[in-house]
Each structure stands twice: as C-alpha cells, then as structure tokens.
From TrEMBL:
Family of this protein: Belongs to the UMP kinase family.
Subunit details: Homohexamer.
Residues annotated as domain Aspartate/glutamate/uridylate kinase: 4-213
Name the UniProt record assigns to this protein: Uridylate kinase
PANTHER family referenced in this protein's UniProt entry, alphabetically: URIDYLATE KINASE, URIDYLATE KINASE PUMPKIN, CHLOROPLASTIC
Pfam families recorded: AA_kinase (PF00696)
Lineage: superkingdom: Bacteria
Function summary: Catalyzes the reversible phosphorylation of UMP to UDP.
Reported regulation of activity: Inhibited by UTP.
Catalytic reaction(s) noted: UMP + ATP = UDP + ADP
Organism: Flavobacterium difficile
Pathway: Pyrimidine metabolism; CTP biosynthesis via de novo pathway; UDP from UMP (UMPK route): step 1/1
InterPro entries documented for this protein: AceGlu_kinase-like_sf, Asp/Glu/Uridylate_kinase, Uridylate_kinase, Uridylate_kinase_bac
C-alpha cells in the first residue's frame, strides 16, 4: 500500500445519494464496502464527515438565524452523519470509534489525539465528528487539522467530481482534469480544491490532498495502491 495512514474526507451531501436531504442507507453501505477494501489491506483510516446534507450554518444565517448558533447546529449534523457512518462500518465488520470536538459523552469519546492515534494503530477506524468544534470553520479544515494532528500521509477528499479541472467541468465542456498540480498553481490559477483556511493549513504542513470521485467503485483502493486516480495536489 502506498499509504500507511489516510484521512478520508466525505461531504455530508455525498451521503444523500439520489435524495434531496438526509442520509441514503444504500450510499452508506456502498461507502462502507469501499472503506472495507482498504481496511482489509491494513491501511489505517481516519474519517471526517461533513454535515451539509442536514444543516449548514451559512444557510441558517442567510435565513436570519444567528451564524454561531447555526454553525453549532452544523457541527451537530456532522455528529449525526458520523454515527450513521459508524453504524454502517460496524455492520460491515470494521471496528470503529467516534471522537467529537464537542463533548457528547453518551455517544462519542472526546477528541484526544493520543487516544485517536492508538485506535488507528490497533486498526480501528476513527471518525472525527463536530468539525473543529469552532464556528466559522468547515469540515474541510477539520479534516486537514486532524490529518496533521494524527500524522496522516494524505487527505483523500471524496467528492462527486473526479478531480481538479482547468474550469468547472459541469459548466465548461472544454475543461481538462489535472493528474497532479501544486498548491501554488491551484492558488495562481484560482482553482477551487478546499476553502482557503483548509487549503493553506494543508500547504503549510506539506500534507498532500487527493481529490477523487468516491462514488466510483474501487477508486479508494486504487489510490491506496498508488494508482493515479483523481487529482493529487502536492507541494
Ligand atoms: N461547522 C463549523 N465548524 C467546523 C465544522 C463545521 O461551524 O469546524 C459547521 C458549519 O456551519 C458548516 C456545517 O458545520 O456549514 C457543516 O459542515 P460543512 O459545510 O463543512 O459540511 P460539508 O459541506 O462537507 O457537508
């Protein structure tokens, strides 16, 4: 395997599958099957999941809600998704732990770096919930932060598009995908990989990001096998 320890970032929206809202059980079990393939190969797996399928703080604020209140609601949404994913992973036979940045003792461990690392060493999949625990941040930032903290080799950002393009492929038919691109080039060309806070944190800490299509079966395993899938953002 090319990577010993990975941080998989899944957006909340990905969990909707074909639905308009919420969680699609089929998508959850499909993701569990994909994750099992790399777990079986001994890859140590940390996961950060978004909450956009349930609630986004910015959306709440645009409807007149207090932004900070909305952001905490968004963080709780990530915990709900984390619990759903945890259930699906355990159903597929993988040991897991959910650690949250906000304390919710009955259902999750508090985030403790050393403990998380120990779980990973023992082959448990660690899901980090509640983002960074702070309003005004995103789960992409939480993914990079935790990825750095627990020493992951790479951030694997599973999305609906299969990489980074010269332009938005859903709007421009001439858009071409990059196999690899540097952090500096992403910035110089104004491309969108992650929000600026997450992106800069990753760049400063030399943590590469691979953007790939999580809905294409086998992609996750291929990446861990060192095959070129999606777009790799490197230093
Ligand atoms: N959020 C937050 N702080 C964090 C992570 C998330 O306040 O550290 C809130 C924020 O309101 C965000 C919501 O949780 O809109 C859901 O996360 P995000 O939008 O990143 O999820 P995704 O787009 O990946 O589904």
């Amino acid at each position: 395997m090319s990577y010993k320890r990975i941080l998989l970032k899944l957006s909340g929206e990905a969990l909707m599958g074909e639905r308009q809202y919420g969680i699609d059980p089929k998508t959850l079990s499909d993701y569990a099957a994909e994750i099992k393939q790399i777990h079986d190969q001994g890859v140590e797996i940390a996961i950060v999941i978004g909450g956009g399928n349930i609630f986004r703080g910015v959306a709440g604020a645009s409807n007149g809600m207090d932004r900070v209140q909305g952001d905490y609601m968004g963080m709780l949404a990530t915990v709900i998704n984390g619990m759903a994913l945890q259930g699906a992973l355990e159903d597929a036979g993988m040991p897991t732990r959910l650690q949250t940045a906000l304390k919710i003792e009955a259902i999750a461990e508090p985030y403790i770096k050393r403990r998380a690392t120990r779980h990973l060493e023992k082959g448990r999949i660690v899901i980090f919930g509640a983002g960074t625990g702070n309003p005004y941040f995103t789960t992409d930032t939480a993914a990079v932060l935790r990825g750095i903290e627990v020493d992951c080799d790479v951030i694997l950002k599973g999305t609906r598009v299969d990489g980074v393009y010269t332009a938005d492929p859903e709007k421009d038919p001439n858009a071409v995908k990059y196999d690899t691109i540097t952090f500096d080039d992403v910035l110089a060309k104004g491309l969108n990989v992650m929000d600026t806070t997450a992106f800069t944190l990753s760049q400063e800490n030399k943590l590469p990001i691979i953007v790939f299509d999580m809905n294409k079966k086998g992609n996750l395993l291929k990446i861990c096998n060192g095959e070129t899938v999606g777009t790799t953002v490197t230093i």
